[in-house]
Amino acid sequence: MATLQNKVVVVVGGSSGIGYAVALAALQSQAKIVILASSDRAKVGRSVERLKTHKLPGEVSGQVLDAKDSTAVKQFAIDLGAVDHIVWSSGDNPATSAFAKIDTVEVGQDIFSIRFWGPFILAQHAKFNAGGSLTLTSGMAGLKPWKGSHLASGMLSALDGLVRGLAVDLAPVRVNLVNPGAIDTEIFDAMFGDKKQGALDSLSEKTILKRVGEPSEIAEAYLFLMKSHGIEEQDMTNNGVDKFTIEISLPFTSHLPTLYFPPTFNLCTTAKSNIDTLRYSMATLQNKTIVVVGGTSGIGFAVALASLQSQAKTVIIASSSSEKVDNGIQRLKAHNLPGEVRGEVVDARNSEAVKNFAVGLGTVDHIVWSSGDNPGKSLFDETITTVEQGQATFAIRFWGPFILAKHAKFNPGGSLTLTSGMAAMKPWKGAHLGSGMLSSLDGLTRGLAVDLAPVRVNLVNPGVIDTELFDAMFGDKKLGVFDAITSKTLLKRVGTPSEIAEAYLFLMK
After folding, report:
1. Can you tell me the mean pLDDT for 380-400?
2. Which region among 187-196, 257-266, 300-309, 401-410 has the lowest average model confidence (pLDDT)?
3. How far is residue 393's CA from residue 261's CA, in Å, rounded to a whole number?
4. CA angle 128-26-31, nearest 5°?
5. Stretch 222-243: mean pLDDT
6. What are phi and psi of 225, to 5 degrees?
7. Structure confidence at residue 375 (pLDDT)
8. Mean pLDDT across the stretch 440-465?
9. DSSP secondary-structure letter at 312?
10. Matching CATH topology for 8-230+240-248 and 289-508?
11. Could you tell me whether strands 174-179 and 127-137 are parallel, antiparallel, or unpaired per DSSP bridges?
């Protein structure tokens, strides 16, 4: 039986709920020292005393830490010195966050402060003994968002990518993620008050075991990950205490896209000569207005062109550069296709500009957001070590679509399609922040699909596509990079913009 004998275990958020259960379980597993941290001095003191009443071997101490304060988190990590295992279970009370009412970047960024930026900063400065581990905590809304939870879903999904990236960057330190289902903790008291039992009963009815979990049960998942030296980069999901499953992300194998929330196909059947036959017709974008943010180059331009080729009535391309917009319009018009082509200048980093852009569009049919940073300049910069620097990484790909979705108007049958990237599923050295940001789009998409219904919300995750982006990133070394990448793909080649554009067309149609 593996134990935590002679190990130092730190639990951020250890004064209550799951965190307290992990601290107690660590002591029961013979940890030498357990340090719990929380923002409430009184709660820390009470929890330390509660743990001591169990009269278990092992030293218990507590520290006051404001997990929202990145400077405090940095100093906390440095002052700890070398430890064996750190568990981060600290998080906001969802009831106080009013996710559905948040419609500005400034307010929305606060949702990321404890669960995402806290561990991000801690990981930059913590020191681990050999065999050490860092375990983060997600939540139900990441995989199964409810009405109004799209921002929470995006934030929690960001943890998936952050964990995958940190597992690469902190190796041999093991980095894992636990995603609890409904666990009966104090957070439900804060959320539901005297209606808590009714809420738990409702949740229980949706689980196989017809009950919610206990903190001591989910604590076993954290113990397992601390003790098991062969487990890394895992997402341990607790499906409402039905069962635990270790979910391992499959490696990226080709340039084909990952599509989320595909539309339902309605196939019309007619009887003819006693045989049911399918009546097929090629779907087009006839009489539709298509907006492509990032439509002046790369994948976005290919989507704009493909939309015109599919008989779109109007295609509007948007970019931050007026010169690129003008050039993109001329290139599209050179194909002499029916359909109007227009351009708009919008700074996708400026939330007010994005809001005004969305409002100014009026009602449209389909919006594609392909705009993004040059990864070589920002997404995968290992020198980003502060929250202020890191927040800029989310500006275009996450906060841009978030704000646009709040204000855009769609005709019946409309859709919004976002764009992710390779590092979400298969991060490389130094890509933990980019991986976290790109993974946040998974949850944002799931949440917006709930909140914007019947508007369809989808996400395309392209592999390696030969666009101008690679010229900017690698210059004359591009072909060598492509050769290295294609040797690891099934098709032994990179994709072209026109190929991936078909994925966006599919989702619009």
Report:
1. 86
2. 257-266
3. 25
4. 65
5. 61
6. -70, -30
7. 58
8. 93
9. B
10. yes
11. parallel
Please list the residues that pair with 259 across neighbouring strands: 460
Q: 398, 99, 444: which is closest to 260 by C-alpha?
A: 444
Q: Which CATH superfamily groups domain 8-230+240-248?
A: NAD(P)-binding Rossmann-like Domain (3.40.50.720)
Supply the pLDDT for residue 357: 98
Report which secondary-structure segment, H or E, holds 331.
Answer: helix 322-333
What percentage of residues in the chain have a pLDDT greater than 90? Answer: 61
Of the pLDDT bands very low, low, confident and very high (cuts 50, 70, 90), residue 79 is very high
Specify the residue for token string 């982006």.
Answer: 469
pLDDT of 257 over the 60 cut? no
- Separation between Cα atoms, residue 360 and residue 346, nearest integer Å: 11
* DSSP assignment of 209-267: TSS-B-HHHHHHHHHHHHH-TT--S-EEEESTTS-EEEE-PPPP-SSPPEE-SPPPP--
Confidence band of 195 (pLDDT split at 50, 70, 90): confident
pTM of this prediction exceeds 0.85: no
Domain boundaries, the chain: 8-230+240-248, 289-508
What are the distances in angstroms from CA 432 to CA 101, 131, 237, 422, 426? 29, 21, 21, 12, 10
Residues in the chain: 509
Question: Reduced to 3 states, what is the DSSP secondary structure of residue 168?
Answer: helix
Percent of the chain whose predicted confidence (pLDDT) is above 70? 86
> Topology of 289-508 in CATH?
Rossmann fold (3.40.50)
Mean pLDDT over residues 335-340, rounded? 96
The alpha carbon of residue 200 and the mean position of all alpha carbons in its chain are separated, in whole angstroms, by 27
Chain centre distance of CA 8: 31
Q: Strand, coil or helix: what is 10?
A: strand
Nearest Cα neighbor of 21 from 84, 87, 69 is 87
Range picked from 74-83, 132-141, 379-388 for highest mean pLDDT: 74-83
Please, what is the Cα angle at 351 between 348 and 355, to 5 degrees?
Answer: 95
How far does CA 455 lie from the centroid of its chain? 21
Q: Nearest 5°: phi and psi at 164? A: -60, -40
User: The tokens 């001329």 sit on which residue?
Assistant: 330
Query: In DSSP terms, which residues pair with 419 in a beta bridge?
Result: 460
Q: For residue 217, give every residue at least 6 positions away whose Cβ sits within 8 Å of its Cβ, in sequence order, or none.
A: 183, 241
Q: Give residue 282's pLDDT band: very low, low, confident or very high (50, 70, 90).
A: low
Please say whether the beta carbons of 339 and 314 come within 8 A.
yes
Catalytic residues: 138
Q: Residue with structure tokens 């994948």? A: 299
Helix (H) or strand (E) holding 363: strand 363-369
- Give the CA distances from residue 72 to residues 7, 116, 146, 471, in Å, rounded to whole numbers and listed in that order: 24, 15, 33, 40
Q: How many C-beta neighbours within 10 Å does residue 338 have? A: 10
